[in-house]
Amino acid sequence: MSWIIAIIVGGIIGWLASIVMRRDASMGIFWNIVVGIVGSFLGRIIGGLVGAGSTLTSLDPVGLLMSFIGAVVLLAIVNLIQRGRAR
């Protein structure tokens, strides 16, 4: 059951991050889920660096915020890489 919740929450987090980073038109539901899940791992790392890493759970508001921040950071890195290739 936790995998289903992770996929649903990851999809929502990835979709919100893609809207913030203006990449929603170029991403499908699969990539939204991938960005959300990988972003949550990245957010957990960022949370660990600022001292909130050990208390984060998947449905905790702070955990959701850190997952969102991680997904936005991941999309920013992807944007930088794609811009470097295009030039």
From TrEMBL:
Topology of the protein relative to the lipid bilayer: Multi-pass membrane protein
Stretches that traverse the bilayer: 6-22, 29-50, 62-81
Subcellular location: Cell membrane
Keywords, comma-separated and alphabetical: Cell membrane, Membrane, Transmembrane, Transmembrane helix
Keyword ATP-binding set for record: no
InterPro entries xref list: Transgly_assoc (IPR007341)
Record family assignment: Belongs to the UPF0410 family.
Record-given protein name: GlsB/YeaQ/YmgE family stress response membrane protein
Species per Swiss-Prot/TrEMBL record: Croceicoccus esteveae
